[in-house]
Specification:
single chain, alpha+beta, two-stranded antiparallel ribbon, 9 helices
Amino acid sequence: MKSPKSKKIKISERRRFISLVTQSIGITALGGFIWSGYLQEAKATPLILRPPGALKEDDFLKTCIKCGLCAEACKNRSSNPDQTHQTSTLIMAKPGDGMPMGTPYFIPRSIPCTMCEDIPCVEACPSGSLDKNLLIDMAKNRTKMDINKAKMGVAMIDPHACIAYWGIQCDACFRACPLLNTAITLELKKNDRTGKHAMLLPFVHADACTGCGLCEHACVTEKAAIRVLPVEVALGKAGDRYIKGWDKADENRLEGVSTKTTTQTKRSAKNPTDYLNEGVSYE
């Protein structure tokens, strides 16, 4: 009778080689998958909302050391009513969040910024990625940070989903705004559907909105009809080609800018009398 050892199947060199190649390919593919996922999450995300005083996204990513002190300060802020569960606004991005890993952000619909007057998250930042100077009104020679100077984002209203635009009375976002009647105002408009009633429509003033998200959090619709977007995403830019001729301040905006802007196209390379007469027969 043969012993168990004699039954052991011998693996040929060719089979061993194929097995090693297969394993190597698998490991390489797995590494590439993990690395590509890391790179995807390490890149700037255009829709992410940062804490007050955050530098522009590219600069923020270069300076943030991912220490988490801002989120810790947010968690322990004096106005935090209950520290037994998640009540802090700031979250540190983790794998799977789709955000640059280890950086702070917040989701207004879940927990908005509560606009702490002492702004502990900025005070705790050791790298300057949350810049105090962005929250100080230098023009008024102030030295103390003012949370109302924050530009975390800008609230945008979807008039198709906002029930106030349907004619239903609702001022939830207006009431929730910490800059009452400044960042969001209510404007009176005739209800053309009924012809009898007036509608009070919320209107966001982008220059005053801090992007705290208290309005988005308070919105009564299933999916918020008012949402906070990063400033760079939410706001347009007129550029150097257009100016408010009646506004001196806007004229100063273009001081030193050349007005001799030309656009080169295939058509502009030709003489106008040539391309305007193309295809015209005088016979």
